[in-house]
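Input record (one chain):
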Amino acid sequence: MDRAQKEQLVDELGQIFESSGVVVVSHYAGLTVAEMQDLRAKAREAGGSVRVAKNRLAKIALEGKPCASIADLLSGMTVLTYSEDPVAAAKVAQDYAKGNDKFVILGGAMGENALDVAGVEAVSKMPSREELISTIAGMLGAPASNIAGAIGAPASNIASILSTIEDKAAA
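The corresponding structure, as predicted from the sequence alone:
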């Protein structure tokens, strides 16, 4: 890899560190190619990505970035799992670590906040952006349907009362 390629890689990593909602750093020693492809596929499904990069270049890319605190985690065979959604990458990494002993989460960063292993696990248990949006939409829609029901209820009550009066008058 020549100098120009290294500079390009540092720029790409810098953009990843700036634009990602969460970055999870893990060791992957002993994973097969098929297992790594499986991890990438799961990350892609969740809207995230997986990247293996040289630690030295990743540390250079981290300089001056909000998540610079993860530089200490970059030693050995590390892989970065990241996503714009602040929860997706953490969920993918946590789920994959549960099923594979060779994949060990070291920590990560969520914006400027450094995360240890417990922090990554806590983030992975949070609802995703889509789940939060649907919950909020449901909450916003509920009062409107309650109001519509309350407005419609007196009319139906009046109709049933009139029907009862009509039945009594006919009898």
